[in-house]
Amino acid sequence: MTPEKLEKTLGECAQRIRDRFKVAPLRMSEYDRSRRDFVRGGGSGGAAEHVLWMAEEAQRLVKLGKVEKAFRWLGFVQCFLWMMNTCSIEDLKTMSRPEDPTAG
Question: Where are the domains of the chain?
Fold first, then answer.
């Protein structure tokens, strides 16, 4: 996956989180830990807010040349999308596939 495709994939993940959970990004250090409602009752609690922040921050990491870290964060973001039934594994594979089938 090229850095450009990585950035685009992270953007698609972020949009799916915004569409499904109607949240704004929130860094974990800014999260009110007294709420303690991460992923309870089928909702996302603060998890969706934090994962949205991660997806947006990972796009910034790509621009800074920190591609390996951005790839790790993409894996975490995609796992969240799958666990919350927002995307199927096939959806995520398609999202990550090169746009040009002859590209590596």
Answer: 3-31+41-96
